[in-house]
Design a protein that fits this description.
16% of the residues lie in helices and 46% in strands. With 219 residues, it is α+β, with helices and mostly antiparallel strands. GO terms for molecular function: lyase activity.
Length: 219
């Protein structure tokens, strides 16, 4: 998770009609994540995600310190970029939930203490990330229910998302991001991710997830 300029983040997600959440004035939250899916309805595959915290559609912007704290209730994750390395999950993700999946090479090295991932599209590197695990978190740590938002072909959707994580470790900082020459790399560079220190990094040893049907929303 990174704190990035809210105006720059809003410009990135403007096509969705959604509004960026600001936990601090002028700052937004951008998350980078990589997942190795081992077993599920969509088969085994690798996935990378660029996401932003957004306010639920139709909610007014909060004001004041307490207003901002209350305004973070119910925030969702807008999935801006979601490369995967298998065709079946690409087709299902786009047709069933409207997730912006695209095909990419996503090599991962999860065997060592430092977890590494890269995303390469058409021979061009978009991003490389290395995450150092932190301290173990108590059982049940994490967010069990989140609204995932996406926008594909001009249609914005909300998908209720349930997570059950275990073997969770968290730390301040702990992530090294290297950006390449792909257009998404330039987008992340404009957010300052080539020089930003992560607010926190989380590794999850095992994670089960389920997605409800997607619903179209009017931002």
């Amino acid at each position: 998770m990174f704190a990035v300029p809210a105006a720059a983040a809003q410009a990135v997600v403007a096509y969705s009609g959604l509004e960026i959440a600001e936990p601090w004035p002028g700052r937004a939250i951008c998350s980078l994540a990589f997942v190795r899916y081992a077993d599920g309805d969509l088969g085994p595959y690798h996935e990378f995600a660029v996401a932003f915290l957004v306010r639920p559609p139709g909610t007014p912007p909060p004001s004041g310190r307490l207003g901002r704290l209350h305004g973070m209730r119910g925030v969702g994750a807008f999935i801006h970029w979601l490369p995967v390395n298998q065709e079946f999950t690409l087709e299902c993700g786009r047709s069933i939930w409207g997730f912006p999946k695209e095909l990419a090479d996503i090599p991962m090295d999860l065997a060592g203490r430092v977890k590494r991932c890269a995303v390469q599209v058409g021979g061009r590197t978009a991003v490389e990330i290395a995450v150092r695990p932190g301290a173990p978190m108590p059982g049940g740590a994490g967010a069990p229910k989140v609204d995932a938002y996406s926008c594909l072909d001009g249609v914005t959707r909300r998908t209720p998302w349930t997570l059950a994580p275990s073997d969770v470790r968290m730390r301040p900082g702990g992530a090294k991001v290297t950006l390449g020459d792909h257009p998404v790399a330039e987008e992340l560079r404009a957010l300052g991710l080539d020089r930003a220190r992560a607010l926190s990094s989380t590794t999850v040893g095992h994670l089960s997830m389920s997605f409800d049907p997607a619903e179209e929303v009017a931002p």
